[in-house]
Amino acid sequence: MIVQSHPLLSILFFALSFKTLRVFLRTHSFTLPPKQVEGNRTKSWRWTNLSVSLVHSAITGPWALLCVYNSPEMLTEIFTFQSSFSYLLVCVSTGYFIQDVADIVMNGQSRASWEFLVHHVLVISTFLYIVLTHHYVAGAVVALFVEVNSIFLHTRLLLKLANAQTSQLYHYNKYINVFTYIVFRLSSQFYLTWFMMKNVSVLPNAGYINLSLNLMNVMILVYFYRLIRTDFLRKPKHYLQNGNNNTKFVDD
Length: 252
What we know:
By secondary structure, this protein is mainly α. It has helices at 2-5, 7-27, 41-70, 84-106, 114-133, 137-143, 146-161, 168-198, 206-233, 236-242.
C-alpha cells in the first residue's frame, strides 16, 4: 500500500487536502458564515476553521469505530495490531492536525488558541512516531474515538458563533455532546492511559506516550469542567451576552 511505503508524503497529501477543503468552504456561498459572523475577520476565520474540523471529525470518528468493529482485537493488541484501513486513518488524521496547526499560526491565532496548539503538537508527535514505526496503530485508532464527540463539540461552537444558544438544536446538541464526551472522549482516553501505565515497563517508548496521554487527560478534564459550567450551570442570558465577545479561539 502506497500510504504505508510513503507515510510522510501521504500525510503531506492529506494536509494539503484539508487545506483545499478550507479554501472551498471559505469561498462557496452555501458554506459562508451566517450574518452574525460576517464582517468580523476573526469570527469568519473561526467559522471556517471549525467547519473543517467538523468534516474531519465526521470522517474519522465513525472510521475509528468501524476499524474496531471489524477487528475487536485492536482493543487489547494496542501495540502490535494494525491493518491498512487503520493505518490510513492515522495518516489522514495526522495530516489534518498538521494543517490545523498551520492554519492557526498563519492566521495569527496562536496566542488565542495556544491550548489547541499544545494539544495538536502532542498528537502530531505521537502520531508521527506511530506511522513511522508501525507501532501503537491500534492505540491511535482508539484515541480517535474522541472524534465522535468532536462532531457535537464543533457543532456546539459553530452554534455559539451564530449566537444560537437558545435554539432547539443547541439544546439537544448539548446533551448529546456531554454523553459522547463521557463515552467516547473520557472513556477511551482513560482506557488507553490505564493500558499504557499497566504495560509501561514492557512496551517501547511507553513513557513518552504515557506523558502525552496524561497531559491530554488534564486538558480534557478542564474542558469538561468548562463545558458543564457553561452549558448547565450558567443561565443562558449570561453566555448570550458574553459568549462571542472574547478573542479566544474556543470559548467556554
